[in-house]
Model the fold of this input.
Amino acid sequence: MQPCQLCGSTPATKITIGALTGMVIAFQVRTFRGWFCRNCGLAVYRQQTATTLKTGWWSITGPAVVPLFLLFNLFWWAKITRLGPPLPAPGARPADPGKPLFRRPVALMLLMAVPVVVVAVSCVAFGMLGL
Done:
């Protein structure tokens, strides 16, 4: 079993968490890949997902791509949270996972997803009806 690449704690699991930054007509993707304990994995997940929620929407493709990033990150979150408490390596301390996403102001950015989904479903529905 591999130790956490940030703090050396065990148990750790291999994950890939992405962040999306929209830049009007383009976007940038940053990924963290590696072995992380529960605390360090949650810290990386929360930071990357918060970045996506803050900056992912600001490109032409953002409203379509951000929900995919959130779903992929949620898959990795589920894997991280199944780990037991980290057993620190001597002289090391696991990262502080910080506040849960829904207790951060950035969670309000999820409200952007509601109108996007409503518009997308409406366009598909009206397109199927031939209106």
Notes: The mean pLDDT is 88.
